[in-house]
Every structure is written in structure tokens, then in C-alpha cells.
């Protein structure tokens, strides 16, 4: 039986669970093992051990992915850590509960773009690909490249909150390329130049 909130209720689970109404504070591009076992593991621990109280919306960066699997499990899964800590062997199993939902922007573009209107969202995390594709159009729903999607989202957020700097986003790319943040910023500037006549 798949893990889900219903399954946990059936077995009488009494441990910590992030409240279902916890605000969505993190927008995550990428649903692979690296982000789920690293970043989401950290966020899950932050929720349990501090007052962060924030959930993660996962966005599938390409047309085919695993958001349906995540949604069937209510975003729940386990991380198995194996190694050594302070000289002692570690083999732990941790339930991760910080993912509120997962979206496919190719079939749920309106829901994806509406994320820009959520004032509580503060962080953008990614591990997908950082490349400028000049074939992307501002009218694409969505742009095929990750920087293109992010530019579309940032413009929508800028318009929604009328340029309010307090609604800016902290962007943390986790792609394994040199100066990933600088490269992402350059790509966004390229899209701004490419699409400047569409911004109105």
C-alpha cells in the first residue's frame, strides 16, 4: 500500500506531521532524488525542529516526469541515510512530509503561473538545467527551458505585487555547474531582452 496521509491514519501513526495548512514557502523546480533527499530532507527537519512551518510546491521541469507519483503519495516518501556519524554507523529511515503538491506546468500551466501570486512563497530551488533557448516565446505555456519558465513567473510576480521588493524571491540553484547562479541570472537577462516587446 502506498504511503499517504490516509495510510498513516489507518495504521494509527502518532509521530510528527507538518500541518496540511502550512503555507507554501518554497517553489522547487525538479522532483528527482537529489532535491528530495537533500533539500526537502533539510526543510522537513527545519519544520520539525524550528518554527519554519513551510511546505514545498514541486514543479516538474520537463513534460514527462513523476509528479503524478508524488501526488498519489500526498507528497510523502522516505529517505534512507547510511554512513557514519561521529565514528558510529548510521542507517536511518526518515519520512519526508514537506511537499504540499506537485505540478506539471505543461498540463497545469494556470496553476503553475498562479504560484507567482502567492505572497508566502519566498524561495526558489532548482536542479534541472540552466540554458538559454532562443526559441522560447513569452507566450509559451510554459517556456521549455527552466530559465524561461522562471522569467515568466518573475514577471507575473512583479506585475501582481506592483514591484514590491518585499515580495522578491531568494533563488538557490543547485545545478552542478560552475557559478550556477550567475549563469541563471545571465539567462534571465537574455529572456528579458528577447521578450521586452511582449512585457507591455
* Sheet with most strands: 5 strands, parallel
Query: How many E-type strands?
Result: 7
**Largest beta sheet: what is the strand line-up?**
5-2-1-6-7
Span of the ends, CA to CA: 51 Å
Task: Give the SSE order as H and E letters.
Answer: HEHHEHEEEHEHEH
Coarse morphology: globular
Seen as an oligomer or otherwise, the chain set is single chain
Portion of residues within helices: 25-40%
Strand content is: 15-25%
Structural class: alpha/beta
- Report Rg: 18 Å
How much is the average pLDDT?
95
- Counting H and I runs of at least 4 residues, what is the number of helices? 7
Uncertain stretches: none
Keyphrases for this structure?
200 residues, two-stranded antiparallel sheet
Kindly summarize this structure in a few lines:
Helix content is 34%, strand content 21%.
Description of the structure:
- The protein is an alpha/beta fold and 200 residues long.
- The protein has helices at residues 5-10, 33-37, 39-49, 67-72, 109-114, 146-160, 180-199, and strands spanning 24-29, 55-59, 77-85, 88-96, 99-103, 123-126, 170-173.
- The strands form two sheets. Strands 5-2-1-6-7 form a five-stranded parallel sheet.
- The longest helix is centred in the last third of the chain and has 20 residues, at 180-199.
- The termini are far apart.
Amino acid at each position: 500500500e502506498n504511503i499517504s496521509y490516509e495510510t498513516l491514519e489507518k495504521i494509527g501513526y502518532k509521530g510528527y506531521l507538518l500541518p496540511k495548512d502550512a503555507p507554501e514557502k518554497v517553489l522547487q523546480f525538479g522532483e528527482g532524488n537529489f532535491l528530495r533527499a537533500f533539500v526537502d530532507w533539510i526543510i522537513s527537519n527545519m519544520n520539525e525542529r524550528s518554527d519554519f512551518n513551510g511546505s514545498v510546491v514541486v514543479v516538474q521541469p520537463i513534460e514527462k516526469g513523476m509528479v503524478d507519483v508524488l501526488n498519489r503519495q500526498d507528497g510523502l516518501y522516505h529517505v534512507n541515510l547510511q554512513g557514519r556519524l561521529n565514528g558510529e554507523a548510521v542507517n536511518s529511515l526518515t519520512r519526508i512530509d514537506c511537499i504540499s503538491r506537485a505540478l506539471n506546468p505543461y498540463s497545469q500551466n494556470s496553476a503553475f503561473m498562479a504560484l507567482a501570486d502567492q505572497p508566502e512563497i519566498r524561495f526558489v530551488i532548482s536542479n534541472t538545467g540552466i540554458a538559454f533557448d532562443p526559441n522560447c516565446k513569452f507566450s509559451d505555456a510554459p517556456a521549455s527551458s527552466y530559465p524561461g519558465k522562471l522569467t515568466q513567473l518573475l514577471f507575473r510576480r512583479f506585475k501582481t505585487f506592483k514591484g514590491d521588493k518585499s515580495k522578491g524571491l531568494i533563488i538557490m540553484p543547485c545545478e552542478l555547474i560552475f557559478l550556477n547562479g550567475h549563469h541563471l541570472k545571465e539567462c534571465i537577462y537574455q529572456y528579458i531582452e528577447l521578450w521586452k516587446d511582449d512585457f507591455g
